[in-house]
Design a protein that fits this description.
Helix 1 runs antiparallel to helix 2 (32-50). The chain has helices at residues 4-27, 32-50. The protein is elongated. The protein is built from 2 helices and no strands.
Length: 57
Amino acid sequence: MHQPAHRRTDAAVFVAVLVTGVVLVMSGRASAQDVAVLGSALSALYAAWQRPPVRKV
C-alpha cells in the first residue's frame, strides 16, 4: 500500500503529465495520439522508478 507521501507524488506526476498533454494538444504541437504515446511512456518510466528494489536472498 502506498504511503500518504507517495500518493501526493503520484497525484503530482499524474497532474503534470495531464497538464503537459493538454498544453501540447491545445498549442498544436502534438496530436492526441502523440500525447497518448507520451503519457504511456512516462507512466511506464514512473512505474519503474517507483518500484521498490528487489531483495536477493
